[in-house]
Amino acid sequence: MQTFSLKLSDHYQELGQKSEGVLDAYIPEASPEINPDIMRPSILICPGGAYMYCSRREAEPIALNFVGKGYNVFVLYYSVFEKCFPYPQLEVLSAIRMIRENAAQWHCAPDKIAVMGFSAGGHLAACASNLYNDSRLLDIIQAEPELLRPNASILCYAVISGLKSPHELSFERLLGEPDEEGLASLSLELRVDEGTPPAFIWHTSDDGGVSVKNSLLYASALAEHNIPFEMHIFPHGIHGLANADRTTVYENPVCAQWIGLCLKWLDNLFYNSGEPAESCV
Q1: Residue 19 to residues 152, 178, 219, 251, Cα–Cα distance (Å)
Q2: Is the separation of the CB atoms in 154 and 117 below 8 Å?
Q3: Does pLDDT of 219 surpass 90?
Q4: What is the pLDDT of the chain when averaged over all its residues?
Q5: Helix segments in 168-267, DSSP class H
Q6: For a disulfide at 228, which of 198, 249, 270, 276, Cβ 3.0-4.6 Å?
Q7: Any residues with CB less than 8 A from the CB of 9 and at least 6 apart, and which?
Q8: Which letter does DSSP use for residue 278 in this model?
Q9: Beta-strand (E) ranges in 78-172?
Q10: Each residue of 60-99: pLDDT tens digit?
């Protein structure tokens, strides 16, 4: 497996000196025994941490699950200083851009990029899914929206809304003392439109860190705009489960099913051309 790290601002100077974004790559070696010309789907992981830090248990342990199943995986360690907006948002879009611009070299299918996020990282993944054409960000990045838009999102106990059942600390870290207009602009259930990519969503109904209402709000917005999604609400589980198995801190065998469910969803979307499953009726 090929692994390397890149500081995004070294490649995209428009991010500025304050940008702390680092992209770690996990790419299976091209081998004549497999298929040296294969172009794999990619997953870009945004760990959680309330925009205060990037959780390590929601980074490499997650990546290794998907590398072994035929995916190139990248982990974004995004900027987390006080009042960090718009740096994390610029960095996640720049990471998607970097994957596309290096698709041939890294054996990445440029039209099969999923962004995955946990907790506050889920908010960042949802930002990538809905703010890729935001004029505030495009004025800085100076790139075409099509280069920045992910093809799918995977939202794991994600922070979504700054207005309804908000995770207040995440928005304080992003915006300082935000007003309602600032909160609304980063409440992703309000930013969903016909260009929002399909989503896989999971949460637990008794999550005490980020209310499950966040995922329900996003799913409702997707349904309103006829965007395909799959959602799993598990009955019990604390916040921050990550893999939910022995590879991370917390074990929860029921919630650990999310990885297999997500892989089936991704495989259907990226390997099976998104064809709907046969009816059980």
Answers
A1: 25, 21, 31, 34
A2: yes
A3: yes
A4: 95
A5: 168-175, 180-185, 213-224, 258-266
A6: 198
A7: 15, 16, 17, 19, 21
A8: P
A9: 108-118, 152-156
A10: 999 999 999 999 999 999 999 999 999 999 999 999 999 9
Is the pLDDT confidence value at 281 over 80? no
Q: Is 232 helix (H, G, I), strand (E, B) or coil?
A: strand
Which of 144, 56, 50 is closest to 93 using CA atoms?
144
Pairing of strands 72-77, 22-27: antiparallel
| Domain parsing of the chain, residue ranges | 2-271
Q: Would you state the structure tokens that stand for residue 75, as one six-digit string?
A: 């982990």
Q: Which of 169, 21, 155 is nearest to 92 (CA)?
A: 21
Spatial contact of 43 and 62, defined as CB atoms under 8 Å apart:
no
Q: Which residue, chain included where needed, has tokens 């390997």?
A: 271
User: Which residue carries 């908010």 as its tokens?
Assistant: 123
In the block, tokens 């360690």 appear at 77
CATH homologous superfamily of 2-271: Alpha/Beta hydrolase fold, catalytic domain (3.40.50.1820)
**Per-residue confidence (pLDDT) for residue 273, from 0 to 100:** 67
